[in-house]
Amino acid sequence: MSDQQPHRAPGAYAPPRDQTVSDAYRRWAGILLRIAAVIAFLMAAAFVASLVLLVRADADTRNAAYGYLAVVLWAGIVLAIPVLLAVGIPGVIMRRRVRQQWTRPS
After folding, report:
1. d(Cα 9, Cα 99) in Å, to the nearest integer?
2. Torsion on CA atoms 37, 95, 21, 35, rounded to nearest 10
3. Segment 11-42, tens digit of pLDDT
């Protein structure tokens, strides 16, 4: 074996350097998590409202339109799921990175 360092080709993978998390990054992590919490709360409220609308629609045949409103709320819930995931997952990952940097010894 020679004493030379192994040659690394330009553009080859190298592990990322430790970077500090900026205040803006920390702020955006919190904003994304708050937005995800608001979306989750609205989805839960829409689900409860849809159940109430279904009960009202079932109680009287003249209130059948409430059942259709419940279906519209369900469609809104289904459409909000990808938005919740698109906001929540990056927020959780960012928050985890902030916490790891916060607890890492300097």
Report:
1. 34
2. -10
3. 667 666 667 788 899 999 999 999 999 999 99
> Per the structure block, which two tokens stand in for 11?
């553009």
Give the pTM: 0.75
Closest alpha carbon to 16 in 80, 76, 97, 83: 97
SS in 3 state form for 47-93? Answer: HHHHHHHHHHHHHCHHHCHHHHHHHHHHHHHHHHHHHHHHHHHHHHH
Give the Å distances, CA to CA, from 75 to 32, 68, 69: 23, 11, 10
